[in-house]
Structure formats: C-alpha cells, structure tokens
Design goal:
By secondary structure, the chain is α/β, with parallel strands linked by helices. It contains eleven helices and 19 strands. It is globular and about 65 Å long.
C-alpha cells in the first residue's frame, strides 16, 4: 500500500477520498469494530465545504446537513451583541453547514466505499505506533488476532487527540491540557429560533450556551433537531479523570446554573430538559509542537493540532489538511517531501488557531461585553462600537483561513480539472 492512514474519522476518511481522487493507493485502519453515527453537531466552514464540493460531495452535504444562515453572539441575558450572515448569505462562493458529526462520518464512509471498495477501510485495528524502515513507513496495529505490522510508503496519523502516533513522537507530552471548562452536549427536538438556520452563542467565559439546528423542521410538527452545548468553568486544579471522557451526564450538575436563562427567542432550561441524552466532555487541547513529520510519517487533524471547540474550526481544518496532503503528493510524489510541504503550509496556520482559541477566538467578544456592563444593556452601541465588533469578527476569519475575499479569490487546493 502506498499510504497507510491510522484513524477513520472525518479527517482520515476525507484523506481516503482525496487519495482515491488523485489515484494514490491507500488503506485506512480504524480502531472501532463497527461504524455508527455517534456524536452531536459540528459546523463546516466554507473553506472546508469547498474541498468537499471538489470531491463531488455537494449532494451529500445538502442531504445530511443544513446551510447555516447567520452566526450571532448574545449576552447572558439574551441581548444581541453581534450577528452576521454566514456562507453564501455573507458573500462566500460556498455555504457553511451545520451537521451531525456521526451522519457526516457515515456519509463520507459510504461515499468512500462506493468509490474505492469496502477493502479500503479496515475496522477493529487500533494504531499502536510506527517505525521508519528504509524507504517506507511501518504501522503497528492491535486487532483481535493480536499485534501486527503493515508497511506503506507513507503513514498518516489521523487518530485524534489521543493519538498513539503523536505519543510516540512526543513520549513526554502527557495527557491533553484541561482549562477548567466542562461541556455538556445534547440534541433536542424543538422549534428553530431566529432564521431557522442560525447559530447562536450566549453568555461569557465562565458560562455559556452554544446552539444551532442540524436538521430541517419536520413538516408536521415544525420541530427540528437542535444541537446545544452548555459550558461551565470550574476550578482547573480539580483532577480530570480519564473515565469521565464523553460520559453520560446528570442534568443536576449543570442545569441549575441555566435555570433563569429564558430569552424572548429561546428557553434554555426547556431546551436542556428536552434532550434524550446528554454527554459530558472536558474542554481540552494540546500545546502546539514544532514538527509533525518523522521520516515517512506525519500527523493530521486532531492528532496534529487539537484545539478548543471555538470558532467552528476543528473538523473543517481536518478536511483542509487532507486536501493539502493530496496536493503535496501530486506535487512531490508519494514521498516525505510531500509531507514536509503539507506541514510547512498548515502547521503555522493551525498553531495560530490553537493559541487564539485559548482566549482570543471570535467568542472573546462576549467576555468583553460581560466585563463592561455585566451583559445588560439597552443598546450594544453604548458598550462597544460596531467597528470594534466588525474588526474582531474579520480578524478570526483571516487567521483561520476563511476570510471572504481571500477564500473566494484563492485557487483550488487540488485542481480537479487536471485529474481527468
């Protein structure tokens, strides 16, 4: 096999689709024994949507996601701070999508198997580590039969924030870094708010709610699936127990803090109570590192640049990674030079995103308003100028690689016209 991919999440599957598109043999090794549509909602920014469209996946995205129309910040009292249009409503050539992570993953898997055959994805194989052997890379895997090794020209670690490939490169790094915030995530069938395709964030650094629909309203009930994330910050000196990762949550642990968050456009406690299941996650990331590539092996997605879920950029960046790796392979062949070209382009960008998301992301504006007026005001113009709000919003888009004018004017990562 030319390229071995450790991890079959959104990043790894997108890389598989890219490699098939450019004619590079590959195989994906995924630790789970059977795929299922797990998770909750995510957003795909126009820079990532562009790449999926170039893979011919526009019909799939329109089937499983909804096009996000607006994005807004609100105070803890529900007052509007800043609202902007998104996707094509904002002038992009491509939309932004709100989508269920598990449904997206399953749709990517279906498209990949349809194009490349079922043998391209091997489930029940967990990456343990790697080695460089001459002109090839070797991937060690654990499966039902025990431990085995496979050899390819390149190995790509797409195995997430707990990456075994990264752990071998950085054996002293330790566990992900927790900032003291806990996230409770769920989905609730409820009436859509504002435009019906809006993403909203309300609160401040110590307490907030994030929500957006990930389905169109039912024609009979008028209800849509609303994805929501409630966040509270606690003392980071408390021990973060690994067994609490993605565990079923007790509403009593966080609902009382949101009991009075009843806005004229949203009843937050009712939304939380209406969820079928709620899961708890710690807000964690890792420090940026100075290299991702070791010989014939590199990292991508959350294995390379795990970041706080701020700015709706995590899955989007993994998709972009996949396409830039593909472009590197076209330019440099299936070689370490391709990996270095990818890292040289992407690592500085994601380093800036990781650091910005620790305190200077787009949601910083909510804390500024909280500090200035306690989140209560008659006119936002009395608290912060429109110029300051606009500049803050534009700066993060530019930092994350999806400024409107720059993205619209940029050439495709992979010019598909040259492939056929």
């Amino acid at each position: 096999m030319a390229v071995l991919i450790a991890g079959g999440g959104i990043a790894g599957l997108t890389l598989g689709l890219t490699l098939h598109q450019i004619g590079v043999p590959f195989r994906i090794y995924e630790k789970t024994g059977r795929y299922s549509p797990l998770g909750v909602g995510i957003n795909l920014q126009p820079n990532a949507v562009r790449e999926l469209y170039d893979l011919g996946l526009k019909p799939m995205l329109d089937k499983v996601g909804i096009r996000t129309q607006e994005y807004g910040f609100f105070s803890k009292s529900g007052r509007e701070i800043w609202v902007e249009q998104r996707g094509k409503w904002a002038g992009y050539r491509w939309p932004q999508y709100s989508i269920h992570r598990g449904k997206l993953q399953m749709a990517l898997l279906e498209a990949l198997i349809e194009r490349a055959g079922p043998e391209c994805v091997v489930t029940g194989h967990k990456a343990l580590g790697f080695s460089n052997c001459g002109s090839a890379g070797e991937l060690a895997l654990e499966c039902e039969e025990g431990v085995k090794s496979v050899v390819g020209d390149l190995v790509i670690g797409a195995d997430g924030i707990h990456s075994a490939i990264r752990a071998q490169m950085y054996p002293d790094e330790g566990a992900p870094i927790w900032n003291g915030a806990i996230l409770w995530r769920g989905t609730t069938m409820a009436r859509p708010f504002r435009t019906g395709a809006s993403m909203a964030l309300a609160g401040h650094d110590n307490q907030r709610i994030v929500l957006y629909p990930i389905s169109t309203p039912n024609s009979e009930t008028g209800l849509a699936m609303i994805n929501w994330i409630a966040e509270l910050r606690v003392d980071p000196a408390q021990a973060l127990r690994k067994e609490d990762w993605n565990r079923p949550a007790d509403l009593a642990e966080f609902l009382p803090a949101f009991e009075h968050w009843q806005f004229d456009w949203l009843d937050v406690p009712a939304l939380i109570r209406g969820a079928d299941k709620v899961y708890e996650y710690p807000m964690v990331d890792r420090d940026p590192v100075d290299r991702w590539t070791d010989g014939h092996v590199t990292l991508m997605g959350d294995a390379a640049h795990p970041t706080y879920p701020v700015g709706s950029n995590g899955a989007s960046q993994g998709i972009v990674d996949a396409r830039v790796i593909g472009a590197g392979l076209l330019a440099h062949g299936v070689s370490p030079d391709a990996l270095h070209a990818y890292e040289e382009k992407i690592r500085p960008l994601t380093r800036n995103i990781q650091l910005a998301n620790r305190g200077s992301g787009p949601d910083k504006i909510m804390q500024i308003v909280e500090d200035r007026c306690g989140g209560v005001f008659d006119s936002i113009g009395d608290v912060i100028s429109n110029d300051e709000l606009s500049a803050h919003a534009a700066s993060y888009k530019s930092l994350a690689g999806f400024g409107i004018d720059a993205l619209n004017a940029s050439p495709p990562t992979i010019d598909t016209r040259l492939l056929y």
